[in-house]
Specification:
The complex is a heterodimer of chains A (about 100) and B (about 1000). Chain A has helices at about 35-45, 95; strands at about 5, 10-15, 20, 50-60, 65-70, 80. With about 100 residues, chain A is α+β, with helices and mostly antiparallel strands. Chain A has a single domain (about 5-95), classed as Folate-binding fold, CATH 3.30.2270. Chain B is built from 24 helices and 49 strands. In chain B, a hairpin with a 4-residue loop joins strand 26 and strand 27. The chains are: A alpha+beta (about 100), B alpha+beta (about 1000).
């Protein structure tokens, strides 16, 4: 079971959180102008990488705040968590890909 | 009592406390400190069960949790537990156990015919034989399940209680042997919070089976000394009878503590039988020891064949000598200790050593003790009859040990001890995704703690002692201490001060002969004698050969094909030998063959322990509204809605559900009814940008909603599909009250928060869940205004309080928000009061309504009443694939206001396509028939399925107000098919003719 650092509350047990999937998907501003493919991408398609993944988590049984987590899906290693709007932490991709 | 194999002295027993127990309905006696296995052996009982597949007789093979054979059915009735290892069950007064997987008895078992027919039962037999024809599987299955399998599960609820607890520590030490004790001491002395867990009732591990001296004192004295020191440390927690069963990510570990099972099933009192520990450790020291590796020789599964070190354990820990004439079969020195101790205990011992020229200190000691040696030889057969070994057959090995030469000789004996060296217990490290490495010199896998491992970086752990192939006692003691120090250091403790002085005498061991699969007088797997590498699941060397022959060469395939390692012992004694066989067959090394992954639990967990207290009343929380006491007093039958207990209906005078619901429905339309609507989700929204947010959340326009006005809205996800609905009211400028479905409250709250926090953090909206802060009584029916007028001075006529508006007023002197909204289509008032006044409000309205025969009604009447008016229920008439247009609710979708969630999806080709399933009304030809919800509509009726389906019933009721049954359905191209007739085939083979209509059955 993971230990996740909530940017507001600190390190807590995974059971306090829930994962809401891939992070950094901005809602398109010009939805009317989007092609079927572009809208379909936004609504349906998500990355499913083996390795580094940026995810959105919520501290559901805590402060109820949303934030982002950089997690390695292979090893479950968490590289860091950061607030919405913040720049993701720099991660040595070579280290991740091993 | 006749404990014929009990030694005069020795053993960690309380001989002043004899204990009576029953095995297979026969009474025996043992002592406090015994396990069931040691007590049975003391009484000369060693036929414990029948094997899984061939029903061969089996005996006690080990003295610990690795036991593959001696599984028993413990206790009876509700207390019964199958597949308990006799080697782990502590003896208590009145213990009752019996053998399993045998009928009619363990001595005469009909299933043993399988053994005679074993040529018909090769590996994969079930897969191959019973695959075809598939329809007969159901027939076969019954017999297979009866013939195979192990014990019987209890049929009554478990009367014992179980518990769970959480713990955090700096250093968790797993295994209370010499290395573990030392590690705990080192880390504990410097102040680290340490937990030491051990599966046995007493600490000491391998020392319990030993008789050496440490620092000039006996092992028992040394253990006591160390434990005394540990008990003085407040920062150290000692957990015996506790099995570390799982090692998960980020040093999360699960351990199961058998709290008071050893007291007996009737003695449990208030303490739980078992307690599950969920432990988060900063550092973990694995000192889990090693399991002796068996040798695989002809008919090695006979009762009386036992791991050599287990014999030693029975002598030292339990004061039991399980045999008088012992043959030890070994490829290494460690079995010599057993030979020496058994000789001293009075047994006649012969060592059959497969090595050519064993020598060294221990060999000399054994010779001095008068032990006879037969070298470069092996056992090629066992003369077993009437539950006992009578003699073994010995032959000389040929040059490379792959065959035998010369003539047979017979060696009388009643017990065979086998030793093929040791297998470090690496299960936990492997569970934690740690990599293993193979030590060529020691022929085993150990934790690869030196190489940084990407998969294991969240599980920092040390592996020490025998589980790291450090078999020497001195080595264990010193390295254990160092590991404890390093672990404490890694957590941040200063450890330079402490040291540990160790002196103990240990003879050097001579090298092992790396040979485990021993030949006999016919080729292995070809003749009558069987070579079992896996006792638990009856898997033989021949099975692995067959698997390999059929192309199942990968270790993972072999495992599944032969079921090696898949028993409840998870192959603790068999895995490495299986790998040996496979590596021989593939002509490669063991590390090249690889290992299968160890998975939790290390030993089986009871379901009770996993469930803990979360059962019966505590299984699921119950949410109750403020009015619940009234509902209880008035005989409400409840329906679970989410976690809520909602009144389903209120039967009077032993009414049936049907009668009650019909009466409630009529009362609402004819006079008045009262519904507890407190469970509706409620969200308080405040801030400058609420109306902007509402415009995104709902399909209709919200900018112009004036204070005091209510509006109904549909919520869509980005797919354009309806996922919730409700009425939102503008309380005043920038302050709104949103309602959601009862079941969707949390979902909507989360949906709102996620958008606010992640997409539009600059929006000024504060969302607060107030579901439980407001109690709601929904007063419906033509007389509702007359009733409410009695309770308030506030004008509530149509003009001053019009439909779809909200007024704040006192109702029965309680401050209330009253909403003129209706889910029945009748004149209605939804009265919201602070929850603490809910019951008082409800009672006041009931009292005031008496003269109008006010009728409390439940969720079923609510469903019927709304269906009569064609109102949808999200989640019943919708299922996540339904758009507002599919519901015929185009009117609620704004074309002008701009973007909202899901809008762009309306023009997706699939969403915009013609002939989608649409919500329609359904009338059965026979007005008395109420169709089952979920039934399908078909155009063409056939004799039997499959038939082409065009839609399904979503809601279906008997409506007393319409005077017939009514239903709603989602039907392909439904809007254009109104008036047409179709069929609804039912599960009993009959069918109903139905006509599509508008879903509004009562229009006012």
């Amino acid at each position: 079971m993971l230990i996740i650092e909530c940017p507001w509350c600190g390190k807590r047990d995974q059971t306090e959180f829930s994962c809401h999937g891939e992070a950094h998907i901005a809602r398109p501003l010009n939805t009317e102008e989007l092609s079927e493919e572009e809208w379909g991408d936004y609504v349906f398609f998500r990355k499913n990488p083996k390795g580094l993944h940026y995810e959105r988590w919520v501290h559901a049984h805590g402060c109820r705040r949303w934030f982002n987590v950089a997690r390695n899906t292979l090893s479950d290693h968490i590289h860091g968590s950061y607030k919405p709007g913040e720049t993701p932490p720099t991660i040595d991709t070579q280290e991740v890909s091993q | 009592m006749n404990q014929k194999n009990r030694l005069e002295q020795g053993g960690r027993l309380n001989r002043t406390k004899p204990i009576r127990f029953w095995y297979d309905n026969k009474g025996y006696e043992g002592y406090a400190g015994d396990t069931l296995a040691s007590a049975l052996l003391a009484n000369g009982v060693n036929l414990i069960g029948r094997s899984f597949k061939y029903h061969r007789p089996r005996g006690i093979f080990s003295a610990g949790s690795e036991e593959p054979n001696a599984l028993v059915q413990l206790e009876k009735g509700a207390y019964t537990e199958p597949n308990r290892r006799a080697t782990e069950v502590e003896l208590y007064e009145g213990l009752t156990a019996c053998s399993q997987n045998c009928w009619p008895s363990v001595n005469f078992d009909i299933g043993a015919i399988n053994s005679v027919l074993s040529r018909l039962f090769p590996a994969g037999f079930y897969y191959k034989t019973f695959m075809w024809p598939q329809s007969l599987w159901m027939t076969y299955e019954k017999f297979i399940r009866k013939a195979a399998g192990l014990g019987v599960s209890p049929m009554e609820p478990d009367p014992d209680s179980y518990d769970k607890t959480y713990a955090h520590c700096d250093v968790l030490v797993v295994g209370g042997g010499p290395a573990g004790i030392q590690a705990t001491l080192a880390a504990g002395k410097v102040g680290a919070r340490v937990m030491l867990v051990d599966e046995k009732n007493v600490f000491g591990g391998s020392l319990l089976s030993d008789n050496v001296e440490i620092n000039g004192i006996s092992t028992q004295e040394w253990i006591d000394q160390q434990l005394n020191e540990l008990r003085k440390l407040e920062n150290v927690t000692l957990l015996n009878r506790t099995t570390l069963t799982g090692y998960y990510d980020y040093n999360f570990l699960v351990a199961n503590q058998r709290v008071n099972e050893h007291l007996g099933s009737n003695q449990s009192g208030n303490a739980p039988k078992e307690r599950l520990w969920k432990i988060r450790a900063k550092q973990v020291v694995l000192a889990t020891g090693a399991i002796e590796r068996p040798l695989v020789f002809a008919d090695n599964d006979r009762p009386g064949v036992m791991l050599a070190n287990a014999i030693r354990t029975y002598i030292h820990r339990f004061g039991v000598l399980p045999g008088k004439e012992i043959t030890i079969l070994t490829n290494n020195d460690s079995a010599y200790y057993t030979a020496l101790d058994a000789t001293e205990a009075g047994a006649k011992v012969v060592i059959v050593d497969i090595r050519h020229n064993p020598g060294g200190e221990l060999f000399e000691k054994a010779e001095q003790a008068g032990i006879k040696f037969i070298t470069n030889s092996t056992i090629t057969g066992i003369d077993y009859a009437k539950g006992k070994i009578r003699q073994v057959e010995i032959m000389q090995l040929d040059g490379d040990g792959q065959g035998v030469t010369g003539s047979k000789s017979q060696l009388p004996c009643d017990l065979v001890g086998v030793s093929g060296g040791w297998t470090p217990t690496v299960h936990l490290y492997s569970q934690a995704k740690g990599k293993l490495k193979f030590l060529d010199d020691k022929h085993c896998f150990v934790a690869d703690t030196e190489t940084p491992n990407k998969l294991n970086q969240n599980n920092p752990s040390f592996s020490v002692g025998a589980c790291h192939a450090n078999y020497g006692l001195r080595d264990c003691l010193i390295k254990g201490f160092d590991a404890g120090k390093s672990a404490a250091q890694a957590v941040g403790f200063e450890t330079t001060e402490i040291t540990s002085e160790i002196s103990c005498n240990e003879p050097e061991s001579a090298p092992i002969r790396p040979l485990w699969i021993l030949p006999c007088d016919h080729p292995v797997g070809k003749g009558k004698k069987k070579h079992f590498h896996e006792l638990h699941n009856d898997s033989t060397v021949a099975d692995i050969e067959l698997a390999a022959r059929e192309g199942f060469e990968s270790v993972e395939h072999v495992k599944r094909y032969t079921t090696t390692g898949m028993g409840t012992d998870q192959g603790k004694t068999s895995n490495l030998n299986a790998l040996s066989v496979l590596s021989n067959l593939r002509n490669t090394s063991i590390p090249a063959v690889g290992t299968t992954t160890f998975r939790p639990p290390f030993t089986p967990l009871t379901l009770g322990s996993i469930v803990g207290q979360e059962r019966r009343e505590l299984f699921l929380q119950k949410r109750k509204t403020a009015m619940h006491p009234w509902h209880d007093r008035n005989g409400a039958v409840y329906e679970d809605v989410g976690d809520w207990k909602r009144p389903f209906y209120f039967p009077t005078h032993n009414e049936s559900m049907h009668d009650a619901v019909q009466r409630e429905c009529l009362a609402v339309r004819n006079s008045s009814g009262l519904l507890d609507a407190s469970t509706l989700g409620k969200i308080d929204l405040q801030g400058r940008d609420v109306s902007k947010l509402l415009n995104l959340l709902y399909t209709n326009a919200w900018s112009k909603l004036a204070p005091g006005k209510c509006r109904y809205g549909l919520m869509l996800n980005e797919h354009g599909m309806v996922f919730d609905d409700g009425v939102t009211t503008c309380l005043k400028e920038n302050h709104y009250h949103m309602t959601t479905t009862s079941g969707g409250a949390a979902r909507v709250m989360s949906w709102v928060e996620e958008w606010l926090q992640t997409e539009w953090p600059d929006m000024e909206v504060y969302a607060t869940s107030v579901t439980e802060q407001w109690a709601v009584a929904s007063l419906n029916g033509p007389n509702s205004r007359k009733i409410l007028e009695k309770l308030t001075d506030h004008p509530i006529d149509d003009e001053s309080f019009p439909f779809m508006s909200m007024r704040e007023m006192n109702i029965a002197d309680i401050p209330a928000r009253v909403f003129r909204i209706s889910f029945t289509g009748e004149l209605a008032f939804e009265i919201n009061v602070p929850a603490r006044y809910g019951l008082a409000l409800w009672e006041a309205v009931i009292q005031a309504g008496k003269e109008f025969d006010i009728t409390p009604y439940g969720t079923e009447a609510m469903h019927v009443l709304r269906a009569e008016r064609g109102f949808i229920i999200v989640g019943q008439d919708t299922d996540g694939t339904v758009t507002p247009m599919d519901l015929g609710m185009d009117w609620i979708v704004s074309k002008k206001k701009g973007d909202f969630f899901g809008r762009r999806s309306f023009v997706r080709s699939d969403t915009a396509r013609e002939r989608r399933k649409r919500l329609v009304g359904i009338l059965t030809e026979d007005p008395n028939i109420v169709l089952p919800e979920g039934a399908h509509l078909v155009e063409k009726l056939k004799d039997k399925p499959p038939m082409d389906m065009i839609g399904h019933i979503t809601s279906s009721y008997m409506s007393p107000n319409v005077g017939r049954s009514i239903a709603m359905a989602l039907v392909k191209d439904g809007f254009n098919r109104k008036g047409q007739s179709f069929h609804v085939p039912l599960i009993d083979g009959s069918s109903q003719k139905v006509t599509l209509t508008d879903p509004v059955f009562i229009d006012t």
